C-alpha cells in the first residue's frame, strides 16, 4: 500500500483485495482467546476527530490496541482546536510527539488530503471521513461484509447488484462505496429523490433511479443511508413522513426483497425514517456484522500502512 489511505481512488483493485484478504486473516486470528498481536508494538496512533463519532473512533482504537500500538484519542472539543489552533499547528504538535499514524475525521472535504500533502508530519494519514467527500475504511468494511455474506470471503464482487438508497448528496459513505464496489465488479444503483443527488452524479458511472419500489427483487444488497439532517440547511424533501413513505426501507419493501438479499446501514440509524425497526432487526440485516468487521478491516489498514506487507 501507499503511505496514506485517503481515498478509495488511491487503491488499485489488487490493493483493495489485499486489504480485504488481510482483514479476513486478522479476523480469524483475533477470534482466538488472545486477541492481541505484537505487530505495531512501539508505534503511536492518534485518533484526531474534529467531528463527533462513536463507531469509527472506537473501531480504530480497538484495531490499534489489538495490534499493540499506543493510542492517543484527540478530540477537537476541549482541546486547543476549540481555541482556534490551525490544522497545521496541530499536525506539527503531533509530529513533535512522535505520532506514527494519524486517523483524522474532519467536517471539511479535503482535510485529510491537506494533512497528508503538506508534509507537516512523517507518519501515515488515514481518512476517517472528510466532510461530504469520502470515508474509505467504511467502504472497505462494507465490501468485506458483502463478501463474507455473499461470496464466502473469496474473490471479488463481480455481477452483484447493489442498491444504495437515501441521502447520497451528503454521504461520504456513498461516494467511497460507489468507487470500491465498481472496482470490485459490482453493479451499483443509486436511489434517491432528485434533491438528494449530487449535480455530477451522472459522472459516477452507476445507475440512478428515483423509484425505490421498482426492481426490488433484483438486488443482492440494499444499503440504506442516514438522512444527515445536521448538514441540511434547506428543505430537501416535503416532510420526514413523506421521505419514509417513498424512500424508507419498511416491512412491505423488506418482504419483496429476494431471499438472499442482505440489508446494510453505515450507522447511526434514524429508525423510522430511512429504515424501520423491523427491517434493521430482521434476519436479512447485517448491520451488526458491519460494526464487528470494522475492527478487522481497520486492523488490516493499520497493519499494511505501518507494519509492512
Task: Describe what this molecule looks like in 3D.
- The structure is a single chain.
- The mean pLDDT is 91.
- 36% of the residues lie in helices and 15% in strands.
- The radius of gyration is 19 Å and the shape is globular.
- β5, α6 and β6 form a beta-alpha-beta unit.
- α5 crosses α6.
- The chain is built from ten helices and nine strands.
- The protein starts with 12 loop residues before the first helix and ends with a helix.
- The longest helix is centred in the C-terminal third of the chain and has 21 residues.
- The protein folds into two domains: 144 residues, Aspartate/ornithine carbamoyltransferase (Rossmann fold); 155 residues, Aspartate/ornithine carbamoyltransferase (Rossmann fold, 3-Layer(aba) Sandwich), CATH 3.40.50.
- The strands form two sheets. It has a five-stranded parallel beta sheet, with helices on one face.
- It is an alpha/beta fold and 309 residues long.
Tell me what the CATH architecture of the largest domain is.
3-Layer(aba) Sandwich
CATH topology of the largest domain: Rossmann fold
- Largest sheet geometry: 5 strands, parallel
Quaternary organisation of the protein chains: single chain
**What's the helix-strand series?**
HEHEHEHEHEHEEEHHEHH
Q: Separation of termini?
A: 8 Å
Helix/strand structural class: alpha/beta
Give the strand tally: 9
Q: Order of strands side by side in the largest beta sheet?
A: 7-6-5-8-9
Mean of residue pLDDT? 91
Level-1 CATH class name of the largest domain: Alpha Beta
List the total number of helices. 10
How much of the polypeptide forms β-strand, as a percent range?
5-15%
Total domain count: 2
What is the CATH homology-level superfamily of the largest domain?
Aspartate/ornithine carbamoyltransferase
Q: Please mark out the parts with pLDDT under 50 across 5 or more consecutive residues, or reply none.
A: none
Estimate percent helicity.
Answer: 25-40%
The radius of gyration computed from the alpha-carbon positions, rounded to a whole number of angstroms, is 19 Å
Overall 3D form = globular
Amino acid at each position: 500500500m501507499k503511505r496514506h489511505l485517503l481515498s478509495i481512488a488511491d487503491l488499485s483493485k489488487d490493493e483493495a483485495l489485499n486489504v480485504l484478504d488481510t482483514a479476513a486473516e486478522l479476523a480469524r486470528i483475533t477470534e482466538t482467546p488472545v486477541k492481541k498481536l505484537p505487530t505495531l508494538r512501539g508505534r503511536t496512533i492518534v485518533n484526531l476527530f474534529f467531528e463527533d463519532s462513536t463507531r469509527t473512533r472506537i473501531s480504530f482504537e480497538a484495531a490499534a490496541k489489538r495490534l499493540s500500538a499506543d493510542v492517543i484519542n484527540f478530540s477537537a472539543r476541549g482541546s486547543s482546536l476549540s481555541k482556534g489552533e490551525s490544522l497545521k499547528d496541530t499536525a506539527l504538535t503531533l509530529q513533535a510527539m512522535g505520532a506514527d499514524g494519524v486517523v483524522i475525521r474532519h467536517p471539511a472535504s479535503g482535510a485529510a488530503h491537506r494533512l497528508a500533502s503538506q508534509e507537516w508530519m512523517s507518519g501515515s494519514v488515514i481518512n476517517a471521513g472528510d466532510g461530504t467527500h469520502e470515508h474509505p475504511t467504511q467502504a472497505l468494511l462494507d465490501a468485506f461484509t458483502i463478501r463474507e455474506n455473499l461470496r464466502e470471503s473469496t474473490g471479488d464482487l463481480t455481477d452483484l447488484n447493489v442498491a444504495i438508497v437515501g441521502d447520497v448528496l451528503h454521504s461520504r459513505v456513498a461516494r467511497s462505496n460507489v468507487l470500491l464496489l465498481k472496482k470490485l465488479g459490482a453493479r451499483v444503483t443509486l436511489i434517491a429523490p432528485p434533491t438528494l443527488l449530487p449535480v455530477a452524479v451522472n459522472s459516477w458511472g452507476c445507475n440512478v433511479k428515483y423509484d425505490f419500489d421498482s426492481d426490488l427483487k433484483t438486488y443482492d444488497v440494499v444499503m440504506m443511508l442516514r438522512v444527515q439532517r445536521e448538514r441540511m440547511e434547506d428543505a430537501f424533501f416535503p416532510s420526514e413522513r413523506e421521505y419514509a413513505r417513498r424512500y424508507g426501507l419498511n416491512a412491505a419493501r423488506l418482504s419483496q426483497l429476494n431471499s438472499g438479499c442482505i440489508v446494510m446501514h453505515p450507522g447511526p440509524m434514524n429508525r423510522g425514517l430511512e429504515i424501520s425497526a423491523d427491517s434493521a432487526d430482521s434476519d436479512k440485516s447485517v448491520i451488526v456484522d458491519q460494526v464487528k468487521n470494522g475492527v478487522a478491516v481497520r486492523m488490516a489498514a493499520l497493519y499494511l500502512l505501518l507494519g509492512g506487507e
